[in-house]
Amino acid sequence: MSNREVVVLSVGGVRFVTRASTLQRFPESRLARMLNDDDQEFKLVNGEFFVDRDGTLFSYIMDFLRTLQLSLPTDFSDYQRLQREAEFYELYPLADLLSQEHLLKPRLEILEVRFSLHKMQAFFRIFGSCSTTVETLAEQITVFTGQQSGQSWNSPFPSQKPLVPLPLERPSHHDLVFRCGTDYSAGNPFVARFVSIKPDNRKLINGTNVLGLLLDTLLKDGFRLISTRTVSSEEKVECYSFERKKKPAGLNV
Predict the structure, then answer these.
(1) What does the alpha-carbon distance between residue 35 and residue 47 come to, in Å, rounded to a whole number?
(2) Domain BTB, which positions (predicted)?
């Protein structure tokens, strides 16, 4: 490789190594003109181009040049400073993307789990502000029905007979409903509903166990539990509220 194919930059004391073709992605930019010694702002010192600008913000600029996509951390807040840096380097496509700040900021997503016990059955209802998240949960949760051989819904041994998967109830795109436990009204042997939540392969019948697995699944998916309250003490309805910041998809040029 010739010396022109690899370029070393020192931006505010932070060192970057890249290809010349990456810096030439936008030929009208100052970074592209720098390689032709057409810009006095960039000083060539010991084979490295030095520029007195913010090195931390320049890392996002390099990522943009490499991918042609703007993808920022969830906790990023320096939109105006980064836009100013993009304008300094005359990377106007990047500056235009940063002007759409409202599309880049993470959105707060809310999810609510309602749980109630009635005799030997547990009822679940999940509400979500993002329909995509609810749809993903619906793909993870499977309800199976079958005859329970034991007399206790706490029995860890499901019936030897094949279990039949049941479709989840979807009142709307933003919620889903399911239940588990033993249905005494079906007579003897008891008809039972088991719940499985991927990636866990267990089939659970105890409502408290299902609730624990569901909450753990949400926490591992980035949700944060913000409140727990009793909606109805008579009907024993408990409500668990979660939130998470959902990072938007990267914007492409």
Answers:
(1) 12
(2) 5-106
